[in-house]
Amino acid sequence: MPTLTVRYIGGPTAVLELAGLRLLTDPTFDAPGAYPIGARALVKTVGPALTAEATGPVDVVLLSHDQHPDNLDRAGRTLLADAPLILTTTAATDRLDHPDARALPNWRHIDLPRPDGGRLRITGVPALHGPEGSEPLVGEVTGFVLSGDDLPTVYVSGDNASLDRVRQIADRFPTIDVALLFAGAARTPIVPDAPLTLTSADAAEATRILNARHIVPLHFEHWGHFTQDGTTLTKAFAEAGLSERLHLLSPGATVTF
Q1: Which of 41, 134, 28, 148 minimizes the C-alpha distance to 76?
Q2: What is the pLDDT of residues 218-227, one digit of tens each?
């Protein structure tokens, strides 16, 4: 079976290498600082482990959403100009106005040719960036599942906070080999009473729901609006008896499955 390699760049950004293809999640390469969003700002505390140039060319960008600077920043938008394919939400394709941006609504898929002659299937899956009813405030978000003959099945959650959405995905994909879970229990004044991404405990519960063999957390650090981090993830997975499934990477590090 072909292997999956994940290189953690920082925040929500990682490079996935699978079956000869390179995929990039939510490109964020800007320096630390305050980034305006409406009347407020999100504060980035740590820069990426690699620049966009050092990351190298990619075949596909998996963009969970475009409306928040912690998921797509200025340097990330520059990178999109040369991306051969961007898979994202319907709303993002309208705003990006990029000839190679393609909406991937829930349960729709695209099959990409692999260098070995096979196909990589990428399926859009549900995500909710906060509690039920928050979408008018936070906007549309999507996740992705990667699959194919003789390939590990990989779930990329995007900024999802809903375990109900995770259950829907588990119903469709009973075997998840690797899950990249956006965690950190993000909180902002726009939705003051609930997290906008998975808490550490919910990330562990999502692992149970998916029966995922391996978990690589993303988007749990490097921004001021995260209320939980790697320490709380380690604790939550230990309490759930799932420590052996957690792969907590340092920025710039890689793991191969």
Answers
A1: 28
A2: 999 999 999 9
What does the alpha-carbon distance between residue 25 and residue 8 come to, in Å, rounded to a whole number?
10
Q: 112: part of which helix (H) or strand (E)?
A: strand 109-113
Q: Interior CA angle at 95 toward 92 and 101, to 5°?
A: 55
* The Cα angle at residue 75 between residues 78 and 66, in degrees rounded to 5: 80
Residue 254 CA to residue 140 CA, distance in Å, equals 30
- Are residues 158 and 143 in contact, defined by beta-carbon separation less than 8 angstroms? yes
What pLDDT is stored for residue 190 in this prediction? 87
104: left (phi over 0), alpha (psi -120 to 50) or beta: beta
Query: Is pLDDT at 2 greater than 80 in this prediction?
Result: no
Q: For residue 42, what are the β-bridge partners?
A: 35
126 residue type, one letter: P
> In a 3-state reduction of DSSP, which class is residue 140?
coil
As given in the structure block, the two tokens for residue 40 are: 């407020």
Mean confidence (pLDDT) of the chain: 96
Q: pLDDT > 90: what percent of the chain?
A: 92
**Token pair of 9, please?**
């760049």
Say which residue the tokens 């375990």 belong to: 163
